Amino acid sequence: MGLPLKNIRVLDLTRLLPGPYCSQLLADFGAEVIKVEEPNLGDYARWNEPKAGEYSAMFESLNRNKKSVAMNLKDEKDRNLFKELVKTADVLIESFRPGVMDRLGIGYDILKEINPKLVYCAITGYGQNGPYQDKPGHDINYLSYAGLLHFNGRKGEKPIPPATQIADIGGGALMGAVGILTALMGRNESGKGQFVDISMTDGVVSWLQSILPEFLAGNEKQKGELTLSGGKACYGVYETADGRYLSVGALEEKFWKVFCEGIERPDFIPLLESPIQVQEQLRKEIEQIIYKRSLKEWMDIFENADACVSPVLTLEEMINDPQIKARDMIVNFEDTRQIGLPIKLSDTPGEIRTKAPKLGEHNEEVFSKLQLK
């Protein structure tokens, strides 16, 4: 049995992170992903620091299993060639601001006439309509407009941006992949492709499942009152005696009981659902207790306990952790180390087949197969 997406051809016009991560998910499971890049410069991520060989480490990671063709879409000859390429494609992914592809003469309305089966996915910051559709932005801006950044931090502190791109990946890449696969399934029934409009801001709003429904029901909580960001002592990060950190997620009564017994304070057990004022004092007391022992000492206590307690690992510790190794989340491929595949299929697992392509590496291979008039 072959890879599940082996008969799907994807044209990827995107750069940097959201689009390439989206198409990587498809490529890992067999889709033929062709990066359509500007000559000479290509995907900007190629040239970011630090390098991992010829290109940046991030580019190598995001663009494995892909091909690259170099085309100047502002040039009429190349645009006509691109239209011929579209005839052979199942999916197109782009991340330009709304209207850019239309001005180039290769927007969805034109391309669907060329290929009615085309699934066209546009991943943008704010979507194809609304007052912000033409605004520039990055991950931090989308998190801000979605209301998530407001809650990301402790009471009385300024919001803290996360260390990875939640909007780009969760709101853009993952939503894009789901949208594309859903549209492909729909095509099996209708025989037609469709436009997939992905807004990274929309995606983040949809992630607020533990915050927004409660607010919409009339129960507004302030920053620092949410369970996940300081509202409960049972859920948080505590510093240890050696300057390391212990994460505690003992939300349920059974886990909280084991945790309280582990820190030798069974008198805390009845306080799990206590009011916010009590929670603040409880947190301070737990901070003092955890600070008395090293991370190793605490992990020796909780390693085999059902308490939802974990060490806060560095990246070096993470890649050497037995769980990460068991799941093959860091893999060796040729002369590189790659992030493994997070989706494990029992019968048709994905695979890493090739390293990231050189700019325009597959021009001859791809264009020679087009039936040009």
From TrEMBL:
<dbReference type="GO" id="GO:0016740">
    <property type="term" value="F:transferase activity"/>
</dbReference>
<dbReference type="InterPro" id="IPR023606">
    <property type="entry name" value="CoA-Trfase_III_dom_1_sf"/>
</dbReference>
<protein>
    <submittedName>
        <fullName>CoA transferase</fullName>
    </submittedName>
</protein>
<dbReference type="InterPro" id="IPR044855">
    <property type="entry name" value="CoA-Trfase_III_dom3_sf"/>
</dbReference>
<keyword id="KW-0808">Transferase</keyword>
<dbReference type="InterPro" id="IPR003673">
    <property type="entry name" value="CoA-Trfase_fam_III"/>
</dbReference>
<dbReference type="InterPro" id="IPR050509">
    <property type="entry name" value="CoA-transferase_III"/>
</dbReference>
<dbReference type="Pfam" id="PF02515">
    <property type="entry name" value="CoA_transf_3"/>
</dbReference>
